[in-house]
Amino acid sequence: MTMAVSNDALRNQLQSGADALALGLTDAQITLLMDFLALLQKWNKVYNLTAVRDPQEMLTHHLLDSLAAVAPLRRHAAVLAGEGKGAVRLLDVGSGGGLPGVVFAICCPEVDVSCVDTVGKKAAFIQQAAVALKLRNLHGVHARVETLTTPFDIISCRAFASLPDFVTWSRAALLAPHGVWLAMKGKHPEDEIAALPADVSVFHVEQLAVPGLDAERCIIWMKPV
Q1: Which helix (H) or strand (E) holds 223?
Q2: Burial of 25 (C-beta count, 10 Å sphere; 0-12/13-18/19+)
Q3: 172 to 19, 86, 90, 177: CA distances (angstroms)
Q4: DSSP state letter for 146
Q5: What is the pLDDT of residue 63?
Q6: How far apart are CA 173 and CA 177, in angstroms?
């Protein structure tokens, strides 16, 4: 099988996954997602951004998995915009190879996305992706999350840490007064929810269906009490 055929097959699968999620992505956005997948494969060889090596697996376990959270994110961003909060700023914590941060930036051009990672080469990859894909709303930040001081409207993570650790590390100066946390998880994390600080409330647990992936996924939406 030639590379061109397999790329076409991957693109078709990506397109049908995006359609199943009713995201209404443009051809240009699908192309950007495919270009991002190619960048991820290329840099992964040198930088070890993700343990997943197979392009097909990258598509389902990374791209489509991240895409499943786009509609919920858009919905929340629209609420903020409706409240006159101005440009919506999102911080993706421990985003590694840019998942879901880069996917969010491609699919939600109205959201300003910063991906923070303590590993310099991962933050550099995000910066490289922002330049290569011409995404003005995407920024790679090399820092420890607790050292950042700009407030964000939404702080997201995907398989990054336990919920208590995630909110504790990222709350200090980072969450705007109206801000929320968006944590992508697999199975419903009852133990982690039970261990959250008393001043953090879970206001919605949203089940996600990932096209082509037979696994439990959900978003835990949280806010300070």
Answers
A1: strand 217-224
A2: buried
A3: 38, 22, 16, 11
A4: G
A5: 93
A6: 10
Written as tens digits, the pLDDT of the chain (225 aa) is 345 448 999 999 999 999 999 999 999 999 999 999 999 989 888 777 787 788 888 888 889 999 999 999 999 999 998 888 888 999 999 888 899 999 999 999 999 999 999 999 999 999 999 999 999 999 999 999 888 988 999 999 998 899 999 999 888 768 998 999 999 999 999 999 999 999 999 999 999 999 999 999 999 999 999
β 175-185/217-224 pair status: antiparallel
**Cβ atoms 136, 100 nearer than 8 A:** no
| Closest CA relative to residue 93, chosen from 50, 137, 144 | 144
Give me 95's structure tokens.
């985003």
SS3 156: strand
Q: Which residues, including other chains, have CB under 8 Å from residue 190's CB and lie 6 or more apart?
A: none
Residue with tokens 């964000």, as numbered in its chain: 152
Q: Within a 10 A sphere around the Cβ of 53, how many other Cβ atoms?
A: 10
Q: How many helices (H) and strands (E) does the chain have?
A: 9, 7
Residue 113 main-chain phi, psi, to 5 deg:
-110, 125
Of 85, 89, 79, the residue nearest 110 (C-alpha) = 89
Residue where the block lists tokens 């879901």: 100
Residue in 217, 218, 211, 213 with CA at minimum distance from that of residue 20: 211
How far the first Cα of the chain sits from its last, in Å, is: 55
Check: CB of residue 104 under 8 Å from CB of residue 130. no
